[in-house]
TrEMBL record:
Domain HTH cro/C1-type: 13-67
The protein's name: Transcriptional regulator with XRE-family HTH domain
The entry's keywords: DNA-binding
UniProt keyword DNA-binding, yes or no: yes
Amino acid sequence: MSESETARLGARVRAYRTMRRMTVRGLAGEAGASASFISQLERGQAGASVGMLRRIALALGVTVADLFSEDDEVGHRVVPRSGRPELPAGPGARKYLISQRPLRNLEMYAGEFDPGASTGAEPYTHGDSQEILLVIRGEVTLWLGPPGEAARHVLGPGDSVEYRTSLPHRVANEGESTAEVLWVVSPPTPAT
């Protein structure tokens, strides 16, 4: 990697860290590096292994490719419904990313659940962020809490609920028509 490439990489790491309101020490702790290494990397005075770049990207909530992207920031982005990236979901469920990378202060997803579809048989967690679930149409059932102790909430159009992503949760459509929901998560949960 040339000096100019190393400098651009360092500047992008610093920009993403600043966007995430992380300190050098905070990023270092999450990436398993020393604060002095992160500081040197950001100033273009050190390179990083692929493994270290992966850990830094994970800590920043971006991909390794994002760290090398030359795309300039834009003031706004328009994503038509047909252009939403689709994420893996269970049978009869569809999940779309609304917020575009690089994720900054929040991430937003649209979901559709056919009758009988769900986020999976078991509740799940992801990080420790604030999450809001808003029902757009149809009806969904949300379970919050560990299996056997989960509180059950039936939500209809316009209903919302807020919870921590560290709390086990599961969404299912027990109704007879397709349900549409939005999830908003802040700050973005780390990529896995």
